[in-house]
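INFO batch 0412 | record 1 of 1 | parsing
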Amino acid sequence: MRTGRASTDTVIGARVVTTANTLAHQPLSPLDGRYRGAVADLSAYLSEAGLNRARVEVEVEWIITLTDRGLFGSTALTADQKDALRELYRAFGAAEIEWLASTESVTRHDVKAVEYLVRDRLQTLGLDAVAELTHFACTSEDINSASYALTVKRAVENVWLPKLRAVIDALAALSHEHRDAAMLSRTHGQPATPSTMGKELAVFAWRLERVAAQIAGGEYLAKFSGATGTWSAHLAAAPDVDWPELSRAFIEGLGIDFNVLTTQIESHDWQVELYDRVRHAGGILHNLATDIWTYIAMGFFAQIPVAGATGSSTMPHKINPIRFENAEANFEISGGLFTTLASTLVTSRMQRDLTDSTTQRNIGVAFGHSLLALDNLQRGLTEISLSRDVLLADLDANWEVLAEAIQTVVRAEIVAGRSQITDPYALLKELTRGRRVGGPELAEFVRTLDIGDAAKERLLALTPAGYTGLADELVDRV
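INFO prediction complete | emitting tokens
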């Protein structure tokens, strides 16, 4: 009997091991699994392969820059040779990825593996004569800082920022569509002066556009000044060359910005600024997601059913606001990661330490969760419909919010000498604080007020739905 049990345990154990081996090859991060489709465009820039492609680009362009200037007796490459050399990064693909992985397993140094790849391809192209210009006078951070500046800039400008602007555009469109949809505001969760749904959505679009402009105008800095930022090796090899100017021209020629004064590393301040701004945008968008969620819960927005979708596994009637909940959670994750990136990258021990190296490998993860959240928000904003009847019913149940208008008009009448009321605020507070006041009751109160006839007529004509000030016009600011 014991033998049978042992045999059964052995079989079960073998199955567990087999299952574990199979699962070990599955994506660990949901960004590379469940949500891959929403964030895949970032991989071209912020993956390990994307970074290595940029590293090859920087190494290749540095060789071309040095040979164009005929340094150390070199001859400028022909147009065909340059094109062939540039194909190393233009056609960067599976073969290069595999080659680098195999080489790095020996070198234990990622940038050195890239250098060896370029040298190997130079030999294949018959350009052995310029092989020693590969990685010439560079420290790894020269290549890395330029590569990160290139990849992050391209990811932001080509993928992340267009998605943010798509959300802003969706908000702007909704704000114009609902510009005249009067709604009861709630300050501190309590009924307050009415607004319009369009104006409230326009506030978010306005806030986001401001941050988007800051992000679009940001710098992407790189250094190219050698081991400790002094161009020492460069001057030892060619003391008559203006290396700072040559480096500046090279980096700016790549389409990024040059940092002339650094330690071994580029100081990463531009990254701190960028990640703080992206986190800021995420905070505004998180606020939007929670507000829309609340409006849905209040019935202000109805969710448009998606064919075949299930809201609840047990309650068939439900349509859960999953787009906004997903966005909320992923903005929290990305915000935490961006905060960590910014707080870590702002400092480095003396001339450098390697905390920045491992930290920067998570840039793509932070942007991935942010992009996923943006994608959910953009989709969610197309799956809601404004319930204007609910807005109007809410307004009609809260006539007491006109107390602000009444006491303000009375004050103006006192100043104009058309009223003898001594404390209009206290008068309205006694009537409305902590209690509902209906339209007829409020109208009767207005009729008894000691104010001019014109003011009284304006107040009697006022309704909660009509007390929205310039909300409609303010939408035009977006």
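INFO post-check: The mean pLDDT is 93.
INFO record closed
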